[in-house]
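Lecture 7 notes: from sequence to structure.
We start with the chain below.
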Amino acid sequence: MIFLKKAILPKGFKANGITCGLKKSGKPDLGLIYSQFPAKASAKFTTNSIPAAPVIVSKKHLKTGKLFQAIIANSGNANAFTGKQGVRDAENTAALVAAQLGIKKQSVLVNSTGIIGKKLNTAKIKLAITLLVKGLSDNGMPKMSKAIMTTDTFAKEFTAKFKSGKSLVTICGIAKGAGMIAPNMATMLVFIATDANITQRALNKALSRAVEPSFNCITVDGCMSTNDSVELLANGASLNLLIDKGKGFNDFSEALNKICLELAKAVVRDGEGATKFITIKVKNAKTEYEAKYLALAIANSNLFKTAVFGENPNFGRIVSAVGASGVGVRQQDIKIKASSLKKKEITVEVSVNRGKSSAVVYTSDLTYKYVKINAEYN
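Predicted structure tokens for the same chain:
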């Protein structure tokens, strides 16, 4: 497998990102990924009980359609908590894209990120759609990744390539996310394109496998968004033998896992105001679920996160988080190991002597800058 820290679109895909005026800053805020060939799609969405309008619309399209050709996303406005009008705006956005591309509205997945509770200015999107489509190119994924950024400080882009028989399969993923990051899923948008020829069953299975140890194992502030989406399109343009089981599936799954994990880690590294990247490993739990639950209890402890920021080895805060979790870990069974808090990348290992299961989660420290960013965000 070849792994690259940049966005290289697979065969049959084009992308673009432009400024349409949704952001006051004048930075790029509208992006598009287009597959020239109808593609299979698989997706995971926020578990928030008040999902944003684009999540509602994309779910509907996935339920009623079988093949997809476009992913449209705007930043600067989440189109969340906007009622029936918000849903109509998301549907209109899909229709605008479809009309310009000459495809069905139901083959478009819609995404938004930004301020919650404000009506989406679809007039600005409508004026920009022609330019957005006209600028689609084989090298446009970096523009798309910049167009979906909000408080992000850097673009998150990765590409994996692997041989499938005589064909070279490419998987390219981009993400946005820096704040409101909590598992199931982290608050983010993730778009993945592949030219793999793969069955729907295998595509769904591979995405579920990839999301669990990556996007469902990161947290910056324990806050869940309304817009979280991971969307994957597979258009089969590499003309590889159909992937379903065996080595072909394992190779595809391995590459997708790598893409998702590196994107997830990049989101944590870009955590709002973060100065430390923290890996928390819980060992010897009864079940994997219990291990992950304990690891997240530590990762979401503000006392622990501020101690790491201050480079203060007050590990009583870890013990307190474990005890407060309700799992029932005995004091004498807790063993803690940690790397130097003066480093930028820190590993904390906690053993609880309850079984043989383990889990890993990723988080960041909590800083003055995090408070400043979110106090001023509007």
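Points to note: Confidence is low (pLDDT under 50) at residues 180-187. The two ends are 42 Å apart (CA to CA).
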